[in-house]
Design goal:
This protein folds into 4 domains: 127 residues, Mannitol-specific EII, Chain A; 119 residues, Response regulator (Rossmann fold); 190 residues, no CATH class; 152 residues, no CATH class. Helix 18 packs across helix 20, helix 20 runs antiparallel to helix 21 and helix 21 packs across helix 24. Strands 1, 2, 3, 4, 5 and 6 form a 6-stranded mixed beta sheet that branches. Strands 9-8-7-10-11 form a 5-stranded mixed beta sheet. It starts with 10 loop residues before the first strand and ends with a helix. By secondary structure, it is of the alpha/beta class.
């Protein structure tokens, strides 16, 4: 297989460029297609798309346009030596050598490993010089194939235990003294580990690794590089990570397993910088290793490496990560929909929700509605809106907000499936979530359809399809079959039981309202609202409250007030904590804390999710205590809310408003002080442990 990647037919010397780099890419696509290995138009489009996202010019006067595409039937390397250099975006000038990598969309890992060897070779100045001096197509072909087929002088270590993404395990035996990826003549000094990764994982990933290793060799520094590329991941062992003094991440995508390096000094940059400025990044890592104020890897970010076995993550960990993916992608829908809904209530009155469809569809700014007529048509005595303009504006805002909120279950389900199976899981997940809403299964149904769609779609991606069918699998075959399976299961088997469960849950909670049990109900609702901050438990409590509003009773309004007030507590508490003790939080968390003030005031509980994800064992219990306190106060003081959403923006629909504000403030302060105290205690223990270690070392 490796002997056919490049032949003399794929080499052209003294090529006159037809124009800029886009034209040269077209010439390259024509060259590769002329050998029968690819369809020209499809290959050119794929390489141009890749170029538009990330310039492929490299230091040393070379360019490496590349892609993985269904238009490629057989992997190929194309080579052109230009008679006039062309600018491909490299900082040091235009390129006179263009090497294209064309890989099939479902290429095998072995091909990717061979292309990785070529990428590493292109960093070496002597290899580039030999390509420029070559006098024939055969000589160029022999040089490149020689670099690809050469036995490595050393092997980058692989983990004895590590996380690997879906697909075949690429782990190799742990390194020995004979194959450790360090330079000869390494002197005593810091040990550096690095991760390199680019969007396609074909060229830049390995060129960056080679550049960093060469720079470390010249400086006599020990370095170990983990390449997260398409040719498989060469994982760093836990032993090597434990010895490391600093981490370099050169990547344009999210890397897997960051939390293995929690607390380690970090130098992070785009992958191209490692190729162009490898020595500088090594110097920065050396400096960071002895700088106590250097940026460090945050805990709780990335895959949990303790949850792996046999080179692949355990499914429990993968599902947990997928759930967080679903929640994170759902948050923009909540933020946009929730804020628009709140503004609609503020402008048009809390009862605008009952008439928004009629107003938006039948009126306009040039034909404003009559408030009394609209109220009469809806069977209402009156509307809160003061004028037709206010009613129409509020209706538009509420209509847009409710439409956005209507996507929540589908978005949650779709992006959970995406977290498990990638792009093939999105459509089945979205459709499954929409079906869950229709049958009354709600958010719990959306969670289940998302997980099912992700697992089924992932299983299909592991099947080996014929080459002619492989291009259709992720965009047609897998979504079609998975949607039928998941949607069918929800409609025929799962939907009714889940809907019954949701009904039972709502009826059980309703039976607790009134009398002395009301305060207990307020505590339970507060705990539910703060347990998962927008997750299924939170949404179960919210749906119970909103469904009860149809009764238009004092009990239903009190339940709605308890739910909304408690849901405001988590983000407000975290915002308060970041102000009280900013040193306990990272810069990003402090920025999230600033935004959490508005999110909390707007009743968007998800504003606290970034904090809960990073530190669940301190944030969630603290928020639940504060939420329980708030729910109890609401019920004890008989506070009612006629509005289902909006937080402080719908104060006009809350009675008495002062008691509502009091309950939110007290709960937020309790939760904020508690989480600050818990985090401070942990920080003190960490500092004491550090001082003890330092004293032992000094002794």
């Amino acid at each position: 297989m490796s002997n056919t990647l490049m032949t003399p037919e794929l080499v052209r010397l003294g090529v006159q460029p037809a124009g800029d780099k886009l034209a040269v890419i077209g010439q390259m696509a024509e060259l590769i297609a002329s050998t029968g290995r690819a369809e020209q138009a499809g290959l050119e489009a794929a390489m141009l798309d890749r170029e538009s996202k990330f310039a492929t010019g490299m230091p040393g006067g070379i360019a490496i346009p590349h892609c993985r595409s269904a238009a490629v039937s057989e992997a190929a390397l194309g080579f052109m030596r230009l008679s006039e250099p062309v600018d491909f975006g490299a900082k040091d000038g235009p390129a006179d050598i263009v090497i294209a990598i064309a890989a099939p969309d479902a290429d095998e890992a072995e091909h990717m490993k061979l292309l990785a060897k070529l990428s590493r070779a292109l960093v070496r100045k002597e290899f580039l010089a030999s390509l420029r001096a070559a006098g024939s197509e055969q000589e160029v072909s022999d040089l490149i194939m020689g670099a690809i087929n050469a036995q490595p002088k050393r092997r980058t270590e692989a983990a004895t235990a590590g996380v690997a993404p879906a697909g075949p395990s690429t782990a190799e035996p742990a390194p020995t003294q004979a194959n450790m990826p360090v330079s000869e003549g390494v002197v005593a000094g810091p040990v550096i580990v690095a991760i390199t990764s680019c969007p396609t994982g074909i060229a830049h990933t390995y060129m960056a690794a080679e550049s960093l290793e060469n720079a470390a060799r010249d400086k006599g520094i020990e370095i170990h590089v983990e390449t997260q590329g398409s040719g498989g991941v060469e994982w760093l062992s836990p032993e090597t990570i434990a010895r490391a003094d600093a981490l370099i991440i050169a990547s344009d995508v999210n890397v897997t397993g960051r939390e293995r390096f929690a607390g380690m000094p970090l130098i992070e940059s785009p992958v191209k910088r490692a190729i162009s400025n490898g020595p500088q990044m090594i110097d920065e890592a050396i400096a960071a290793s002895s700088n106590p104020r250097a940026a460090r890897v945050e805990a709780g970010k990335g895959a949990n490496v303790s949850e792996v076995s046999g080179g692949t993550p355990r499914w429990g960990s993968r599902i947990q990560q997928a759930l967080m993916t679903g929640v994170s992608y759902m948050i923009p829908f909540v933020a946009a929909g929730g804020l628009l809904t709140a503004l609609g209530f503020l402008v048009g009155g809390y009862d605008v929700a009952f008439v928004s469809n009629d107003v938006v569809l039948n009126y306009s700014f040039w034909n404003l509605p009559d408030v009394a007529t609209v109220a009469s048509n809806a069977g209402l005595d009156q509307l809160q809106a003061s004028s037709g303009f206010m009613l129409y504006t509020g209706a538009v805002l509420q209509f847009l907000g409710s439409t956005g909120m209507g996507f929540l279950v589908a978005a949650l389900s779709g992006y959970i499936a995406f977290g498990l199976a990638g792009r093939p899981g999105i459509a089945p997940g979205f459709i499954g979530g929409a079906v869950a809403v229709v049958v009354g299964a709600g958010f719990i149904g959306g969670l289940i359809t998302g997980i099912l769609a992700g697992l089924v779609a992932y299983w299909f991606t592991t099947l080996k399809a014929p080459r002619w069918l492989s291009g259709l699998m992720p965009v047609v075959i897998i979504p079609l079959i998975t949607t039928f399976i998941v949607g069918g299961l929800m409609l025929t088997l799962l939907g009714r039981p889940l809907a019954s469960f949701m009904t039972w849950l709502q009826e059980s909670l309703t039976s607790m309202s009134g009398g002395g049990a009301g305060i207990l109900l307020g505590i339970i609702l507060g705990l539910m609202m703060c347990f998962d901050m927008g997750g299924p438990v939170n949404k179960a409590a919210y749906l119970f409250a909103t469904a009860g509003l149809a009764a238009q009773t004092q009990a239903s309004w009190e339940i709605m007030a308890a739910v909304m007030a408690s849901g405001m507590v988590p983000p407000l508490a975290m915002a308060l904590s970041t102000v009280l003790r900013p040193k306990l939080y990272t810069e990003v968390e402090r920025e999230n804390g600033t935004a959490a003030w508005l999110l909390g005031a707007s009743f968007i509980s998800e504003g606290a999710i970034p904090f809960a994800a990073a530190d669940p064992f301190r944030v969630i219990p603290s928020a639940m205590v504060g939420g329980g306190v708030t729910g109890a106060i609401i019920m004890a003081l008989g506070v009612g809310s006629k509005a289902p959403h909006g937080g402080i923006f719908v104060f006009f629909a809350i009675d008495p408003a002062w008691a509502y504000v009091l309950a939110v403030v007290v709960g937020s302060v309790v939760a904020g002080l508690l989480v600050t105290a818990l985090k401070s205690a942990t920080a003190r223990k960490s500092n004491l442990a550090t001082e003890k270690v330092a004293q032992e070392v000094a002794a």
